[in-house]
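Because showing beats explaining, we let one protein speak, sequence and backbone structure tokens together, and leave readers to judge.
___
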Amino acid sequence: MEYVLRQATLDDRPALELLIARSARELSANDYEPEQVEGALRGAFGVDTQLIADETYFVVAGDGKIVGCGGWSYRRTLFGGDNRAQRDSAMLDPEADSAKIRAFFVDPDHARKGIGSRLLERCETEARLRGFSRLELMSTLPGVRLYAARGYVPTGHVRYDVGAGVSIEFVPMLKEIPK
């Protein structure tokens, strides 16, 4: 199958919402309990239309269907969709701050076919072209394997409250990129 990478548009939002939910539910099943995933889908996971507006969010399509998504940001918000309350759209300084790698999800039927790596390479290239030499992200547990294979280093673990007394574990990760 031929995969095509392109910028995401607001018209992609319904397909992205479905993709994110399916990816989170199926690819996280070995790492999170269902109530953790459902809680995360209410805010920690989701479409961030600021990334789309900034033209830093991408999709990969195969056979006319979106099968992967991911992006990067030059804004302070580290993770979360439009429904997440703790958002900061202030601009980052490439000399002092790390660009943010954001919202990577792959269709379970297309997992482990290089889609995440292809998206990540595009994001890293664009961040470097904007003057960034460091990248940071907040990885899900299943995402750690991809990011570690691409040179990201874990810096700890955090628990994020997703409501109703439920929390989910994330792994902050960093990577230096040459200018």
Summary: The domain at 3-176 is CATH 3.40.630.30 (Aminopeptidase). The CA atoms of residues 43 and 85 lie 8 Å apart. The beta strands are 3-7, 57-62, 65-73, 99-106, 134-139, 153-154, 158-163, 166-176. The mean pLDDT is 95.
